[in-house]
Amino acid sequence: MTRKMLTSILLAPALLVTPALAADVMNTPEEKAMAAADEIITMRSTLAAEFIKPGAVIDEETFKKVCGAVAKRAKDITEKTGVKIRHAAVKNRNPVNAADERERALIEKFEADKDLSETWEKFDSEGKSFKRYTRPIFVEEACLACHGSKEARPEFIKTKYPDDKAYGFKEGDLRGIISVTVPAE
Predict the structure, then answer these.
(1) Number of folded domains in the chain?
(2) In this predicted structure, what is the pLDDT of residue 5?
(3) Looking at the DSSP assignment, which residues form a beta bridge with residue 123?
């Protein structure tokens, strides 16, 4: 199944409003990884466009409806399917999402090749083989409400994340990556 086909499935209205997971109906680990990444990226864009309108006040409740909902969904997918979803960035807001050495290299790879839309890599950990599927996350217009200029960030972000580095972006900038790890078999 191609990523384009998976995206079509994910954009089906029924999937966006039901608890069914696209990753649940996929057969191979690769299909599960692609479905999970597509679902999270699509959800991020859809919720940002829905809740972050020009001139809207962005408060902690808005944050929960967008970024919080995406994080919760990623956790749900992990719990229900066993895939491991990770957001990572060099310019991170939450220290949990700080890119490690390997993730930094992937971010640099996506930054250097704007046409690169995904990567796959195989690795071993604790005697088991895994595959990691990685996609870039780009800044959209709605993202600028919290990731634009340092001064324009909502007050609750300045308070909650005193070491925030996730600002200064422009629309279209590479914000970070999402990677999905699945067992190789």
Answers:
(1) 1
(2) 42
(3) 130
The conformation of residue 133, written as its DSSP 8-state character, comes to: E
Distance CA 51, CA 41 (A): 16
Task: Give the predicted TM-score (pTM) of the model.
Answer: 0.82
Residue 124 phi, psi dihedral angles, 5° rounding: -115, 145
Q: By the 8 A CB rule, do 153 and 91 touch?
A: no
**CA 155 remoteness from chain centre:** 24
**Residue 98 · residue 88 · CB < 8 Å:** yes
Cα 83 from Cα 155, distance rounded (Å): 35
CA-CA distance, 112 to 133, in Å (whole number)? 18
- Would you say how long the chain is, in residues? 185
CA–CA dist 13, 11 (Å, integer): 6
Q: Treating both helix axes as pointing N-terminal to C-terminal, what angle do 29-51 and 69-81 enclose, rounded to 10 degrees? A: 160
For residue 67, give the nearest of 102, 92, 100 by alpha carbon: 92
Query: What pLDDT, in 10s, does the model give residues 137-182?
Result: 999 999 999 999 999 999 999 999 999 999 999 999 999 999 999 9
Query: CA–CA separation, 60 vs 14, rounded Å?
Result: 28
Other CB atoms within a 10 A radius of the CB of residue 134 amount to: 24
Query: Is the CB of residue 87 less than 8 Å from the CB of residue 176?
Result: yes
> Residue 121 is part of which domain span?
3-183
- For residue 176, which of 68, 87, 96, 101 has the smallest C-alpha distance? 87
